[in-house]
TrEMBL record:
Transmembrane segments: none annotated. CDD domains: crotonase-like. It holds the Pfam family ECH_1. This is Enoyl-CoA hydratase. GO terms for molecular function: hydro-lyase activity. InterPro entries: ClpP/crotonase-like_dom_sf, Enoyl-CoA_hydra/iso, Enoyl-CoA_hydra_C. GO terms for biological process: fatty acid beta-oxidation. It comes from Thermoflavimicrobium daqui.
Length: 263
């Protein structure tokens, strides 16, 4: 595919696509133009049969996304307009979180405000060792609007989430990993290479099973354990209806590598 976006760079590899958010002069701050392009890019990823895993990162080595575009937000002059902006951002981030394909966030520096909120939509968060995570909106007299109060609390617990939102303090990459927010710390010069290797590994798995895993975890977290177990059993049954289930089990019994087709 020919890259069609102004602020997003596209790279494709063996089963994966890498989207790089690129507004480096403002540390990749999220403005409405970039968010619209990201929405279009997510639609393309969802429809691309040759893309099984998505990687998201930011341009440069200073920031993943340093937050929203404050100059743009300063122009909002009513509560209704602000709420509309928040709902639009939340809708996009929900799309990313619920994408039918695994999403790897390669956080390569500051992930603040909207950048932290975006990273929380990933299935796996890989972080450079110089990254910083935070929701400092309180310093601007506002609160997170793209899902930060909700997803961060679910990721690290309500009290730590409130602490970070109320103080505006940042987490180091090591602290984020200790809290379980980040799955792996990587030297910044190797971050993208490792993200691509992980994406290629996951892309070799059964696509429908990967999607069912996402759905089972997401739905289970929104309910009690017994209901969640029922969801898991139902999805376990759905997996048994697929050709990939037969391929995976036959390959295991025949001692060969499976060739999953997503059917």
């Amino acid at each position: 595919m020919v890259n069609q976006w102004k602020h997003i760079m596209l790279e494709q590899g063996n089963g994966w696509a890498l989207l790089t958010l690129s507004r480096p002069k403002v540390l990749n701050a999220l403005n409405q133009e970039l968010l619209q392009e990201l929405n279009e890019a997510i639609t393309w990823v969802e429809q691309a049969d040759d893309v099984r895993v998505l990687i998201l990162t930011g341009a440069g080595d200073k920031a993943f996304v340093a937050g929203a575009d404050i100059a743009e937000l300063r122009q909002i002059d009513s509560a209704l307009e602000a709420e509309k902006v928040a709902l639009q951002g939340q809708a996009l981030f929900n799309r990313i979180e619920n994408l039918s394909k695994p999403v790897i966030m390669a956080v390569n520096g500051f992930a603040l405000g909207g950048g932290c909120e975006l990273s929380l939509c990933g299935d796996i968060i890989l972080s450079s060792d110089n990254a910083r995570f935070g929701l400092p909106e309180v310093n601007l007299g506002v609160i997170p609007g793209y899902g930060g109060t909700q997803r961060l609390a679910r990721a690290i617990g309500k009290n730590m989430a409130k602490y970070l939102c109320m103080t505006g303090d940042f987490l180091t990459a090591a602290e984020a990993k200790e809290l379980g927010l980040v799955q792996k710390l990587i030297p910044k010069e190797h971050l993208l290479d490792e993200a691509k290797q992980l994406a290629e590994k996951i892309a070799q798995k059964a696509p429908l099973a990967l999607n069912l895993i996402k759905k089972a975890v997401h739905r289970g977290l929104d309910t009690d354990l017994q209901t969640g177990l029922g969801v898991e059993a139902a999805y376990f049954g759905l997996a048994f209806q697929t050709d990939d289930r037969l391929e995976g089990m036959d390959a295991f019994l025949q001692k060969r590598q499976p060739q999953f087709k997503g059917r």
